[in-house]
Amino acid sequence: MAAHEKMPDFDVIIIGAGISGINFAYRMQERNPELTYCILDGRHEIGGTWSLFQYPGIRSDSDLYTFSFAWRPWTGKDCIVHGSIIRQYLEDSAAQEGIDKKIRFRHKVNKLSWSSSPSMWDCDITVNDTEKMSLRSRFIFLGTGYYDYEEPLPADIPGIHKFQGKVVHPQFWPDDLDYADKRVVVIGSGATAITLLPSLATSAAHVTMLQRSPTYIASLPTRGVFEAIVLKILPSSMANRVIRLKWMLFSLFMVSMCHRFPRLAKSFFLRETAKILPPGMSLEPDFVPSYNPWDQRLCLCPNGDFYAAIRSGKASIHTGIIETITASSITLASGKELHPDIIMTATGLKLRLAGGIAITVDGEPYNLSDNFTWRTAMVEGLPNLVLSIGYTNASWTLGTDSTAHLACRLLNRMRKRGLSVIMPRMTAEERKELEERPFLALSATYVKEGGNVFPKTASTAPWQPRSYYWRDLAIARWGRYQERHGVVEIGLVTDLSR
């Protein structure tokens, strides 16, 4: 191979122009300014999830004070906002830092191929759905999340194909859908269903949320007294830091309490729910989950809009098992029938890691799910690649930021020591000693059905799943690399900055 063919197009290629990708680009500009990079995204605009999802009421499922970037604090008055506002915030953040000029839209990465000689990644790309091209880089950052943007989670609903009305999956919301004065049944009880119900109820004849089992739905004020006071008495920059810290501590406290004292937490949530139900409505059977809080992700409804829709009589909730669906009805195992005009299958999202990109290492197919993840960021035997995964029990952004700090530190280490390759690996004996743990500690159906797409995690460091932000951040910034189960560094020739 000629010398000029071995040169990379970029030092780093970031895949994904959502929260993870934009945040990593900022951290790299901040900590590794000598490196060249670009961002590749298959969509037409910034935003990732917030560009894809367009169903009514789509909004953040965690507070914006911690969901926003640490380097560009959220200054809006509401802590939960519509998805379009989040997407605009991401676009403005990227423009502020010049990151938008590094993005190549409609560049879908199909395959990543690592070659040990000359220690680089080749990216096979489709541009505008037609043109084929390739780019080469020394390092890959995957900010692709873990949802399948192209296919929904198949809903195993008996007889759904017989229904003569409209069947809609919220992930692919039709622009021309008219649900005004229609009877709508939303099948599901997760965040999507809980978001849809109050939004649809404003113009639909009636909306019924049909669930197999209840979930915890907590009402959260969008504007807090604490925030108002802090913003009034402190300079804005200091106030933003204080408010962000408050929400980080609040999240950690709530999750910890739920895990340590599940009975107490369950009693608290059910008591709060009872206070905002319509008069005379019982908690059973529609509002008492069979699991403990945070065994599945806690759902939020801003200012209690979910319960307000039920109190208005425009919406209702029903718990039961679907026996079958006919051309015009839903028959439940209890014998009850529903007669919707539109059925919406909010039954979860299909999981897919790395955006479905095929990966090979020296010509051999590489399967992420067969290997253990190091610090929830790199995967054993996979060179020069960082995978960004956020938290399930806190804001996604916090997890991606700790990963970005770790990746930038690795890049600096490679540059300073003249390393061409850095990757985690272990011996066969060490691997036998590991006790596997779930990658995501959630019992939701979509996680159970799709959890095999994730890399393995273990009970011992550094192969453990995520814990909490401050611990992960401390490890990312100051943790040791070379340890019994640590990163193995190889290649002492190439300077990454060249």
From TrEMBL:
Cofactor: FAD
InterPro entries tied to this protein: FAD-binding_MO (IPR051820), FAD/NAD-bd_sf (IPR036188), Flavin_mOase-like (IPR020946)
One GO MF term: flavin adenine dinucleotide binding
UniProt key word Transcription: no
Keyword annotations of the record: FAD, Flavoprotein, Monooxygenase, Oxidoreductase
Keyword Membrane applies: no
Protein name (Swiss-Prot/TrEMBL): Flavoprotein
